[in-house]
């Protein structure tokens, strides 16, 4: 009888240990997902700030054309951060769309447009924020 109790206690201890490991792994995986989402939201927020800076830079391009480039560079830097940290299809598509909008603004500026349309950049940034918080 004592051997049977020890065996049951040993099985119970092993089962508890396995359950604890499984629970910890599940929580860690869940935390990783939460951390990635928070990184996405924080970076999207930085991008929103850069888009605001871009809008102001375009409005003031005659005074300081370098500010437009600096704003576009900041957006691209933050896009790389998000792209490196996610494998979410919707987020990656939003990152690609915003990257393309930024490229279009750069092309317009290179082609002599002193006040390029930044509306598509704003729209794409809004979409990125939406998919990061979904």
Describe the structure.
It is a single chain. The chain is mostly helical. The chain has four helices and no strands. α1 packs antiparallel against α2 (66-85) and α2 (66-85) runs antiparallel to α3 (89-110). The termini are far apart. The model is unreliable at 2-30 (pLDDT under 50).
Tell how many strands the DSSP assignment holds.
Answer: 0
Beta fraction: under 5%
Order of helices and strands: HHHH
Describe the main β-sheet briefly.
none
Q: Which residues sit in consecutive blocks of at least 5 with pLDDT less than 50?
A: 2-30
Q: What is the average of the pLDDT values?
A: 74
Count the DSSP helices. 4
How far apart are the termini? Answer: 57 Å
Radius of gyration: 24 Å
Q: What structural category characterises the helix and strand content?
A: mainly alpha
- How much helix is in the residues? over 70%
How would the global form be characterised?
elongated
What order do the helices and strands come in, and which of them pair?
Blueprint: H1 2-59, H2 66-85, H3 89-110, H4 119-133
Helix pairs in contact: 1-2, 1-4, 2-3, 3-4
Give the key terms.
mainly alpha, about 130 residues, 4 helices, disordered N terminus, about 0% strand
Summary, kept brief:
The protein is an all-alpha fold. The protein has helices at 2-59, 66-85, 89-110, 119-133.
